[in-house]
Fold this protein.
Amino acid sequence: MNPQLTRRRFIKGVIFSGAAVTTGTGYYLANAQTGQSAAERLVTLNVNGRSRPVDVLPSETLAYTLRYKLDLTGTKIGCNRGECGACTVLLDGVPNYSCSVLTQNVKDRAVTSVEGVRSANGTLHAVQQAFVAENAPQCGFCTAGQVMSAVALLNSNPRPTRDEALQAMSGNLCRCGAYEHYLNGVMRASGQIV
Amino acid sequence: MTTHLGFDFTPPDVEGKVSGEIKYAEDYKRDGMVFARILTSPLPAGRVANIDASAALRMDGVVGVFTADDLPPSPPPGNPTLASEYVTYVGQPILVVAAVTEEIAESAIDNIRVDFERRDFVVDPMESLTPGGKNAYPEGNVLIRTREEGPGGTPIIGAEIRDIKWPQSAIDAMRNGRNPVDGEFTTEWAFGDIDAGFAESVAVIEEPFVTMGYPHHCLEARTSMAYWENGKCYFHGSSQSQSANNNGLARMMNIDPGDLVFINEATGGGFGSKIGPYPIMAVAGNFSRMLNRPVQLRITREQEFYIGSARSGMQGWIKIGVKEDGKVAAVDLVIVNDGGSTGGGSGNSSAGHVTITFQPENMRYRGISVYTNTTPRGAQRGPGENEMAAVLAPITDKAAAVVNMDRVRFRRANVIDSDGVRSQSQSGVTSAFVREALDQGMRLFNWNERINQPKRTGNGNKVRGRGVGIGYHGAGSRGYDGLVRIGTDGRLYIHSGVGNLGTYSYAGTCRAAAEVLQVPWDRCEILRGRTDNHLPHSSGQGGSNTMFTHTRTNWVAAEDAVNKLKEIAAADLGGSPNDYEIDGERVFSSSDSSQGLTYAQAAQRAIEMGGRYSGMEYPDDINPITQRAVQGIQGTGLIGVSKDNIPGQGQPPGNVVGFTEIELDLDTGKYEILDYAAVADCGTVIHPTNFMNSMRGGAVWGVGMANLERHVYDPQNGLPANTGLYQSKPPTYLDVPTSTRAAAVNIPDPQNPAGCRGIGEPTQGASVAAIASALSDALDGHLFNTAPTTTDMIVNHLAGNSYSTQSLKTNTF
Amino acid sequence: MPSHDVMPNMDLYQPVQVEDALALADRLADRGWLVGGGQDTYGWLKDRAKSVEAMIDLSGIESLRGIRETADGLEIGALTTLTEVANSPVIQSSYSVLSSAAGKVASPQIRNIGTLGGNVSQDVRCWYYRRGLDCYRAGGNLCYADTPEGMNREHSLFNVSRCVAANPSDTAPALVALDATMVIQSVGGERTVAAEDFFVGPANDIQNTTTIRPGEILTSVRIPSTWANATFYFEKVADRNVWDFPLVNVAAAFKMSGDSIEDSRIVCGAVECKPHRVTNVENAIRGQAKSASTADSVKELATEGARALAHNGYKIPLMQNLVKRAISG
């Protein structure tokens, strides 16, 4: 076990919401803008290689934080239930549904969204270039998620077989049915289709 | 020599899609914007007796509540934006709350008390037609389209609700796969003499069938955001169409279309559910005006299920007579459509599909569409045709078997060709090369060899089946406008009022203008996506219409520009316009190419000459929308503008044939699609890679219809079971073939100057039909007569458990 | 129905040591909600179908993560992700029924964060119950699914009692097949329970699917070496091959003696509120050849006692066929 971790404080965080119960069926935020606990919600996220301080509610999802607070709207919310993959981002390089991850849970992790995969000089990532070449996106709403799954795959497995690519991409729904073109894009980005 | 048509290019919005930079409606923010959420009905039927929003309005952060009272009344049979007197399905929007954050708006929803009065409800059309059956509306259960003579002979099309019940004998006949002779229908037509046709048949097949409705579930839940500035409404929406929305959307806010700026750069899927302005769009603009703040209305996935529209299901009966030579002599068809809460069905289009595939000389169609207390129904990818293709394919195979014909050859013998006729009107088509597509597909798939290979390959308890299917949809329209501008920079600006739901036909059609004017693509710019880009009158981007329709409009607008270039050159350099030609972005004398003007120079001259050259004047016959667009750019270059008056007649058909091989696991009822090959008859392919993606996307949709997607409602309480994606089951990467083949006949359509027709919709029909055909083949000709045929149905069949279409239920198991 | 999709505001505790988590779980009891990967949690909370005052996020507790080889097999921390379980070399080589099962859960992204503890603790997938209706399981006094018109295609065949919901887990049958032991801690100490007894049906407890009580935390799963390197079989049949819960799944372990079956554990999922072990089949094949003919001769035993609802009768032949395939291999 990592000794660094065991030397932490007993409780890394307690984030109180300042919530007040109104009825048996729901809660509302009594003092969303003020309240003494607001400072406790200030976190610094590592997003696309930058430190981004942001006020985050305890139960806020990462998709919400990215889209509403950091203005990173490339990440889409298709279902908000982990059933489509449009919101896929990388956490320490691993694809996750950002609609189904609490922002408070990624404070120590590197978050990469679609806005973070271009190279510094603005060149599209090889996956993005390949998706353009294959004319892969149709409506485009799932595309950011497809890009993220493909980038993660090629980072860990630069020359996947077609079946490995298929499995790796499988958590991304495309309602337009452009699967084969995305898959060809992954193979093209890996240098196996030229 | 064509340089643009038939060559790949990258539509300008693709990069924004892969980079995440392109904006959908919900990606826009505006200072002071508030977030709206919908309160939806918990009841399948009833009325709103009282709304008490006082507790919600007292909450910090809540800025307002918007109800049906804030909109003009919407008597049935409309599809109201917000329901009040007529609540007709679970999930129907009742009111909208706006707050400074989404979570406050959602909490406010829980603090609003709505008192409802319940009414009877029904979720199954046949149940509603049964004596004593419940009606979805207090007034009745059937939508009747009315047509009256209006002033000047213009027909006034209306609709009303009637109460229709069938005698029990007709219900029993349908449920037992027989002709419901004494059932009442609202649509009946016939041609020829079906009795005579059946009399000359050597075999007559009678089958019942049922297809399920299912939601579109566009991946972007439809969002709108609106604000008002300087007397104009800026409306960010999610639509398939652009200019075609202007008038309807302006009407929703009771403003002049000139005061609407509709912004819709990208749309997260449509599939027919966003062709025109849909009811919930009335909220953002009107609520924003009421609150005097920008309002964003993002809806949940579950609400997208409720209001995002769905395919109509159908319960039907068909009787087919086949002559000894394999020609279909007669067809008798009955369809009871499930119209959901909006009442409309697609039975007539289903019957149209039958006429395309069989070209019967004698046919009768009887149809009725019944309201149910389920979600609103609307167009969904090949509405009517594709679900008919799904159930018709195995029945067609059975017909081929009784006359001992190969299944492809049977189709070849019956299907429409360029001289054929279609549908009730028995009117013609612009051209049709389905036979050529079948021939090409047989070679591509190696049909003759593969159907003779053994079904058992020794791979466990698995058996193979091979199938063929035909998809068809009317694919094109006429009479819209094109608008192009040559700027003083010499670039070609192509104004497109076509929407952008992801088919890229907005871009493909613009290639026609570049072709006519022979401008390199990198010297062209497409203006689109927002009304204030001055966009011409365009068709709604639905019905596979765009390619045929708007290659024509861009063609005629560009030709208008060519003529003006020649006229300007003749005016400046002498001679007649006919003495000039164009090439290399110049107009020049045919006899001396050094005598000419660059496009940039000609544009400058057009501005100086004014009149129709610079758009100061324009043709009388263009639509007011196009007139406004021309006014917006007049005097800025050489304007080419024209209505599509290209002569011609008949419907441009989109046809696809599909071939597939599946391997069915007899233990589990699951099957794998081993191979899929499809051939399109869509005229000239304009954009090859995009054509392939369209073909493959449609094939994926075919898998969903064949095996997975369906509504599930509980008839006890009217609750839908499958509001979410994991319950609605759109196909995933691992459910579809991902190494498929597609090709095109590529014979130009004579009535399109670019040679093309649309293809979006029949791609699904060919796929679902081929899969259904293959499943039947794997099971030695067993007919499920259902779409979808789900895993449990296959397991039940294999186990000898009773399952049949005789229950003919849609929306339930 | 009212529809929501934004997480409601609530408190969040993020302990890094299990003792603190236990103290919080004890103090908050049923006012708190234990969160591992959260993949079952967030839907309930976003829907407002269930609500609590606070989430106790266990994901920061390193001691609850990881796969350790022990003297008598393996110990898998409850917070170990399904991807880690699926990709673990030791599980793949010696207990592959579990890695196969974990690899079939939902989708890659869900497996990347979803945990083994969460997968076995997840609530039933009855759509009526998930809609927040007042059914027996939700504390009411009726079942919407067990009626002639109920839409109960996904529901249970066995041992229903007022509630007919099925357990949707893919890993739970595998753990029962491996005769795993569940390690449960509370401030009062640790208790262990056999996987087979960890899951409970509605006859015993209609509101919970496991024996975990408020204040308790499932901390790890012990896999005994008893079944290490046995002959394993796992298969899941679902409508779609991604995301969907099983219509029926089967997990089986066979100890072979030459060509004959010395002992076996065969467990089906999604046919009961807990993993359904077919001990009558296990008894019938003991000493028999592991063959297609053995499989055919016993497959109908698998569904003895099954009672089909209006729309789930297909599960009977499907389950028989899966048990048959498990045996015939």
The domain at 126-189 of chain A is CATH 1.10.150.120 (DNA polymerase; domain 1). Chain A touches chain B through 63 residues (CB under 8 Å). Helices of chain A lie at 3-6, 62-69, 126-133, 143-156, 162-169, 179-189. The beta strands of chain A are 11-15, 19-23, 26-29, 42-47, 50-55, 88-91, 94-97, 110-112.
